[in-house]
Write a structure and sequence with these properties.
By secondary structure, this protein is mainly alpha-helical. It has helices at 3-19, 47-77, 85-123, 129-133, and strands at residues 35-37, 43-45. It contains four helices and two strands; from the N terminus they run H-E-E-H-H-H. The protein has a two-stranded antiparallel sheet. A hairpin with a 5-residue loop joins strand 1 and strand 2.
Amino acid sequence: MTEGNGGRQAQAEIQSAISSTRGPAQIDSMVGAGLSFVGGAGYSFDPDQIAALIPKWKELIEGLDDDFQKLQLAWGAVTAPSPDQPAVRNAAITQSSIEAAMTHNRQLVSYAGKWLDALKKANGTYVEQEQHTGAGLYVDDGQDSSGHGLYS
């Protein structure tokens, strides 16, 4: 394959990835729904609205993860069309720009994950990882001596 054909193929793959996207991951106006300020007492939570938000935030995170994979593909597809210094420099700058987008994407995933955890805590569906992991380590009734739990 010649370098010109490889460049055209990479460009076609990038265009295909871009055109197949649903666009950026979206959260509609319900982002803050369920949370209302009640003065000095803090915030009031509407459990039904919060329960409706949880799948939307999960969907946002999944969309961001899909976007990240596409960014990785785009980064890997960047090649200089020729070995001369300006072309190589332009490819490196393009990869640098994509890396910045990837970093931003991971920051958005972190932010959305924290919101999701906060919504789950507010709705009572959040489980601490340590609590979940340690659930089988202890015997609760104190009467079981079968050794099912590590600690009695």
